[in-house]
Design goal:
- By secondary structure, this protein is mainly α.
- 71% of the residues lie in helices and 0% in strands.
- The chain is rod-shaped, with a radius of gyration of 17 Å.
- It has 1 helix and no strands.
- Keywords: Membrane, Transmembrane, Transmembrane helix.
- This is Morphogenic membrane protein MmpB.
Length: 42
């Protein structure tokens, strides 16, 4: 958040990017767990 911003509401692009990054992080975590599970079966 920039100090010069008068409102505390981030712009829509920033919120969309944060939501996308959060989804990507969740997907990445699930993929890592799945990969560990598959590697553990071998």
């Amino acid at each position: 958040m920039l100090w010069s911003d008068p409102e505390n509401e981030p712009p829509k692009e920033l919120r969309d990017m944060e939501a996308m990054l959060r989804r990507a992080g969740v997907l990445l975590a699930l993929a890592m767990v799945l990969a560990m599970f598959v590697l553990g079966l071998h």
